[in-house]
Amino acid sequence: MQAVNFTVNSVNLQNRVKTGSDRFTTKKSVTRFIPTGKVSVFGSRLRSSQTDGDVKPVKSESKSTGSVLPYVGVASLGAILFGYHLGVVNGALEYLAKDLGIAENAVLQGWIVSTLLAGATVGSFTGGSLADQFGRTKTFLLDAIPLTVGAFLCATATNVQTMIIGRLLAGIGIGISSAIVPLYISEISPTEIRGTLGSINQLFICVGILAALVAGLPLAGNPLWWRTMFAIGVIPSVLLALGMAFSPESPRWLVQQKKIVEAEKAIKTLYGEGKVAEVMADLSASGQGSEEQDAGWFDLFSKRYFKVVSVGAALFLFQQLAGINAVVYYSTSVFRTAGVASDVAASALVGAANVFGTMIASSLMDKQGRKSLLMTSFSGMAVSMLLLSLSFTWKVLAPYSGPLAVIGTVLYVLSFSLGAGPVPALLLPEIFASRIRAKAVALSLGMHWISNFVIGLYFLSVVTKFGISKVYLGFASICLLAVMYIAGNVVETKGRSLEDIERELSPAV
């Protein structure tokens, strides 16, 4: 993914695998050990000694002269669209329902909302295969088609059937985006700032949701404004396609496809000419240029990959089963109990907490590490859920139940945005081996969309049966289980190259 700085401390790569806190030790210099007297598959860029069998380090002192930021920015348009399409229907639903003649039909309104999630589930699985077959940038170009057409159909719909088709296409588009945005950003970002750039994905999802809220402000004065709200989604879709037409392909994918010249060209664009030999050596050492074919779906469940794939799926399951969407869905009622009557004010406060927490997480991702933020996040969510549960049941707290419920909700969303929100999408492309990365990310995100859909479908029924206090207590328990699971199964990836991580977690057979 990047012009990364790592030192190989031994000729034998197997000696790199360490235990305890030493397993991820890194150094500032870059040293590559290449068997000398042999020709590298990447040509003469790699120096060798004259004595056969000796080992000489290839050490790069050059600084990066390229920039990945413009391309990360282009990819982030996909994240903005993700958040925008999720949030746009919340304000527009009441008005479009009247305009389309379904104001009294809750079932059809539910279809308009949930069809997006169904499409996203399909898109998330599709995105992995497309990214492996056509590459990351071409998949973005393909993704712009359902995103643009879906937004256009929603904006111009004159009947509910057209609206549902538009939402389905938009859902497929954001499902593909949810898989390839973190994948592409992870594969092109320099190691030392990969955490910060990777968390931008979640930040821009939050920005997209807030943009949808802001876009809905004129609705009160103009009931037909809902069409403009959906039409706005066309703009970033077109910009995404235009930007990706000029963005470099992932060097990792190019090396997998044995397109060495194109990979060197992409590295030069991203990091500068001085980094080409260094990055290509790193990719070579990882075995990405080996004869292994791209993994099939069943390979994800093989002995070699199953453990790491199960960690990825588990993180997204914990993320959703910990109750984030349920809290957001129920926040309006909670805020009204506290005397906040405005839906917009309630949503804005929750959205602001989400954006603020994600900004903090971005600054800490490469300092505190992914695992640390995950454990802190789920611990804070557990405490917040417990506070929410007690605010509904303890008579001692009855006089303060409203304010406590508000505090608990905001603290929960803030805690979520510190780790549980941004880290899984960042961590997954890091821990998955290159040959399974796209499909494994897609599978994990499929778990995300399926659990999201199920929670949205059954949450109110469960609340009706058990009561909100017991449901929140259940969410607190899941958060504590997540902390224990993360402590025992998640590795820290801060400061490590993708190739270094792959050699440890998914060694070649």
UniProtKB/TrEMBL annotation:
PANTHER family: MAJOR FACILITATOR, SUGAR TRANSPORTER, MAJOR FACILITATOR SUPERFAMILY, PLASTIDIC GLUCOSE TRANSPORTER 4. It holds the Pfam family Sugar_tr. The chain crosses the membrane at residues 68-86, 106-128, 140-158, 164-185, 197-218, 224-246, 308-332, 344-361, 373-392, 404-428, 440-460, 472-491. Residues 71-494 form the Major facilitator superfamily (MFS) profile domain. GO terms for molecular function: carbohydrate:proton symporter activity. The keyword Membrane applies. CDD domains: MFS_GLUT_like. Belongs to the major facilitator superfamily. Sugar transporter (TC 2.A.1.1) family. The keyword Secreted does not apply. It comes from Artemisia annua. Its main location: membrane. GO terms for cellular component: membrane. It is a multi-pass membrane protein. It is found in: Membrane. This is General substrate transporter.
